[in-house]
Amino acid sequence: MNAAGPFERIPPGSRFVDLPSPFEFKRGGALHGARVAYETWGELDAAGGNAVLILTGLSPNAHAASHDGDPEPGWWEAMLGPGKPIDSDRWFVICVNTLGSCKGSTGAASIDPATGAPYRLAFPDLSIEDCARAAHAVVRALGIEQLACVIGNSMGGMTALAYLHLHPGAARAHINVSGSAQALPFSIAIRSLQREAIRLDPHWNGGDYDDARYPENGMRIARKLGVVTYRSAMEWDGRFGRVRLDDDTGEDERFGMEFQVESYLEGHAKRFVRSFDPNCYLYLGRAMDWFDLAEYGGGDVMRGLASIRVERALAIGVETDILFPLQQQQQVADGLRAGGCDAEFLALPSPQGHDAFLVDIARFGPAIRGFLDALSH
Amino acid sequence: MNAAGPFERIPPGSRFVDLPSPFEFKRGGALHGARVAYETWGELDAAGGNAVLILTGLSPNAHAASHDGDPEPGWWEAMLGPGKPIDSDRWFVICVNTLGSCKGSTGAASIDPATGAPYRLAFPDLSIEDCARAAHAVVRALGIEQLACVIGNSMGGMTALAYLHLHPGAARAHINVSGSAQALPFSIAIRSLQREAIRLDPHWNGGDYDDARYPENGMRIARKLGVVTYRSAMEWDGRFGRVRLDDDTGEDERFGMEFQVESYLEGHAKRFVRSFDPNCYLYLGRAMDWFDLAEYGGGDVMRGLASIRVERALAIGVETDILFPLQQQQQVADGLRAGGCDAEFLALPSPQGHDAFLVDIARFGPAIRGFLDALSH
User: Name one Pfam family in it (chains A, B) (predicted).
Assistant: First the structure.
């Protein structure tokens, strides 16, 4: 139905749900003819009670794991599938690409049907709450009245809390993975700096770039800064230490790369720069900065959390996370518990920082499996 | 003698010591007609035994505190002076502007006497060890045979260890303030990213910028990234929270500043961008990345530390420091102790991160005073 914009990167197994048109945004403005990309695993049972929704971090697409429609491994391949911690033999699992992304759902890189050209900065001001409402539209379109569980990772942890707040009774359980109920100043500073690096790149050009003039330098800095905050110093001490690059790397410019850690960042930047739309990056990062459940608790984030109605919850985090620090997951558990939820907080000793949930499946897998296994449906 | 380069910022109370000419660098190359800027407080006693040397972090000048030659407050005003923790009624205190800086000592922004133009990237590859040897030249020029104590903050903590290694017996005691014996990958990654932001700025132009075409954007990103790592998330949670800027800040560009923490970073960037030479920033940051006392311990940093001969030492750090984390000061104390030094490690609960020694005088002052008071001379 919709033609893809030049900077959209849509996985081949994507399916789509059309959003109501217009789809009004929390902060004003609306989308017309917008859509949300999703993928699914397993089968919905007759009672429709075994559905699990996964809400992602900033950059992942909806392809969390391989399936018949796309055999490529997904970004959470070890976590999701038959017999895996999120067991598709038992659960009907839906992963939604967030509204505002460039990976299938409508975002700043998508074609505006009113003009036939990408939205770019004409895209309305995106909030996490808009992402949550768009995800809910997918769930309803699939005929699901109530989710067994909504799982949110990182930014998706924010989206999941917004989902539960906006749609009381929409899920019986919630797993918040390295998420938070509000953005705090260190993470706001990091994301602000990432946006500034993109905006200062002359090729960003107020959002009007193309393949030939693309804000590659700004995206390089933004991505490297992201990776620095996604992992942990402790992990890097053991992984890279002070090991230098081989002489034959061809790097001979003044003040160029010398250490393995620099080459690691360079590899991440190269893979990311052209695979994620810069304008979408600006919109999604700012949506995170704006997110604050305290808005729904008279200025008190704990009251905002306590206003959420969900039966059971698990908030997981790791001690080495500097972007969504552990006390934020503790706060999620405490706040939900204050609202009557049977909420558990789990601190894992993973060295991999904020990204641990993507790589430390040995720790995160059993925790998530154990919580899901104990749910009835 | 030397004319200042256009990007040198030399405090009015500076005095100078000429370095031997040529002054050979560790990694090759040499300076001709180079000099080191310094300032002093108090009087050298008849035996010449009460001298204390302060070695600074990356950006400070030699004006650590006010004195008759320059009544302006210095960057460690609350720490140094008559009756203060570093008591100039008792100690003859010398603060040296590091070699490679743009604040009086010869660096990339200084005029190369061979060409009459700034060195820029013709400046030789600077190492921390070169900075230490230049500081030692000042001490010797002042007629001091042995320092009572060498104090090094941050990068200066590295320089102090190099000083002690290169000049056995040159000091009886050492205070290492938020320093380290080697650079680790997280801090290397941060400094590499700062250098990349500067190098990617088209106005950097291979080091050949002027007032009209100056790498302001690269320096903005580099400085903001620095400030993010100099403080701590904990401090910012309490200090800024999610407080927004007043509407009348005149900030109305898309994706511009909204939160107080962003304005705080902006203020730091504005003050810094034109006050520190970009090329000097590249040279000094890389010197820190290169620094590794393990070079003098057969590849083992503890053996490198144990090779240092000093009678007493204090290594201080704070738990919230992410750039020079606390375990690095613990390592300094442990390594010096293994070499026979009476070395103490002190962990302070300051919330201000790496910068705590500049602002948390209530904690750092008594620790430094107590250590100095107990020294004989």
Answer: Abhydrolase_1
**Which candidate in A158, A192, A281 is best for mutational testing of the B interface (most B CBs within 10 A)?**
A192
Domain that holds residue A330: 15-182+293-373
Report yes or no on A7 lying in a domain.
no
With beta carbons less than 8 A apart as the criterion, state whether B171 and B150 touch. yes
Q: What's the one-letter identity of residue B50? A: N
Give the whole-angstrom CA distance, residue A117 versus residue A335.
44
Phi, psi at A374, each rounded to 5°? -80, -5
Would you write out chain A's pLDDT as a tens digit for each of its 377 residues? Answer: 457 999 999 999 999 999 999 999 999 999 999 999 999 999 999 999 999 999 999 999 999 999 999 999 999 999 999 999 999 999 999 999 999 999 999 999 999 999 999 999 999 999 999 999 999 999 999 999 999 999 999 999 999 999 999 999 999 999 999 999 999 999 999 999 999 999 999 999 999 999 999 999 999 999 999 999 999 999 999 999 999 998 655 456 889 999 999 999 999 999 999 999 999 999 999 999 999 999 999 999 999 999 999 999 999 999 999 999 999 999 999 999 999 999 999 999 999 999 999 999 999 999 999 999 999 75
d(CA A23, CA A134): 9
| Contact residues, chain B, for A289 at CB < 8 Å | 258-259
Is some CB atom of chain B closer than 8 A to the CB atom of A51? Answer: no
How many Cα atoms occupy the beta-carbon half-sphere of A154 within 13 Å?
A: 22
Catalytic residue among B105, B321, B350, B377: B321
Q: Is A373 among the annotated ligand-binding positions?
A: no
Domain boundary among A282, A314, A346: A282
CATH number at residue A243: 1.10.1740.110
Tell me if B177 is assigned to some domain. Answer: yes
Reduced to 3 states (helix: H, G, I; strand: E, B; else coil), residue A159 is: helix
CB contact under 8 A, A193 and B228: yes
Count of residues making up chain A:
377
ipTM of the assembly?
0.94
Whether B223 has a binding-site annotation, put simply, is yes
